[in-house]
Specification:
Rossmann fold; two-stranded antiparallel sheet; single chain; five-stranded parallel beta sheet
Amino acid sequence: MLLHGYGADGNDLIELGRQWQRHLPQAAFVAPNAPERVPMSPVGRQWFALTMREPGERWKGVTHAQPALDAFLDAELQRYALAPSALALVGFSQGTMMALHCGLRREAAPVAIVGYSGLLVLEPGKGRESLKSEARSKPPILLVHGEADDLIPASALFESAEVLAAAGIPCEWHLAPRLGHGIDAEGLRQGGEFIVAAFARARRAANL
């Protein structure tokens, strides 16, 4: 499941699926449009509104958007006759916020979560330890970020990784030198290899 960023739509990330398809020939790649239109934009979509003026708007946004995304994920798994554990979540920017928030709270852990240029959203007023009690699953996670990202600073990568580690959730990360708010060829390669390896581990575990 490929979750796009603020102001884009599903077409923005479906190319990742085309690039990874040769390594995952039996996988179904789905890149939905976020449910809300971006104000004053003819095509842009958003998982939740962003003004960058309210400290708690990201938490309010991911919490509000979670039920609809969870329902969509369940419907797609049912449509393809897949178990809940057959899900991998990939997000970019705001889509990463949604992938991490929803993925860690699903009863059945996704096989993997890959987050590009995003961050883990925490409830305002609560410390980093709050995730430990809220997370229902601990999927393997890869976070990839551009060193020169001017929209979500690279420090968000390290802060998110530290929170995940404190909650006992396995997390790998890659900082792309000189990259801004985007995905480069190396990040694409690492993301694909991470997902392939996660599915291979899941298959081995199922055959034990």
